[in-house]
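Notebook entry, structure prediction.
Reason for the run: the old model in the group folder had no record of what sequence produced it. Starting over properly, with the input documented here first.
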Amino acid sequence: IDLMNSWGYSYYYLCEIREFIAIFKSHEALVESLNDKARAGMFYAWFGIAYYMAGKPQVSYEYLRKGLELGEKANNQKVIGYACAWLPFTCGELGFFDEGIGYGERAHKISEAFPSDQYLFFKSLAGLCLIYFFKGDTRKVFDGANRILEHGERNVNSRSKVYGHWKKAFGHLAAGDMISAQKSSEKAIKVSLDPCYAEFPKTTLGPAYFLDGQFLEAENVFQSSLCFCDKRGIGQFSATSETFLAPTLIAKGHMKRGAELLEKTRKTLIRNQRRHVFAISEYILGEVYSQIATGPKPSFSIMVKNIGFLAKNVPFATKKAEEHFNKAIELLKEIGAKGFLGPVYLSLGLLCKNCKRNEKARQY
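New structure, fully documented this time:
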């Protein structure tokens, strides 16, 4: 089990998640037979982060909580620290923001007792940055990102530098500055020395291109990420890439293909209880239908290629757009994710304005 817990780092940094889960699964019975709470706690904590990377936050949460409870029973601060450092990422996906912040702050406090364990320091801050991004607290995202980056520079730690630049990219996304988000994402990729950490910043680079209307660049990033992730079982990033790749394909005229991809991805998000990303998919669907209803007519060649899709969706596009926008607002409010509420309200207001519903437009 000591060997498994050491190998956790290697599987994680190499992003070999499918193999990571398989080999830990094959040793789970051995862990259950151990009368060693600290070793078992670290094993379950690693298992939890593996399932997070696989895009299964509910399973991840259960294993991380199990690891945390065993660490507490053994009074082992390192096990507690690692479980609490990883829990904010899982809690963020599930919409448990306040709980996740509590874990992140606890892990960061514990990191002060382990100054040589630099991972514990920057990982705990990174989890907090992610939740503050979901909550729309841009100032706290940048504060955390700058601390991570300074730590990386001071200790010549490439992994801390990656996280610092990457979390700054999240801050720029939240602030609506897509050019700066692209630059910070590219810096993060450039300083990475690990296959896994070189992949992380693509989750901000692709959306930054997409939201800036650079659809070809966005598609290239998403396709590259999917190629890497699908081979290794990194469902966490695969589903996120697909969520944004789908509207990219639709914007380029591949409407049926994009719609089918988004529908498939949404089923995956629901099955794995990824509430925040699912809410974003509702927003994206609202935008798709809003563009069909109010945007300029596509070229004749695109209309011919997508005649079935257009015939099925154009007559009801306005109604569908409004339904998806309202569903996104409902879900985002439910979990307290204010970061995307403004853009959704703006899009809904513009849709109402186009439909001459001026009072509703002003309200939104």
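Summary: DSSP finds 22 helices and no strands in the chain.
The old model has been moved to the deprecated folder.
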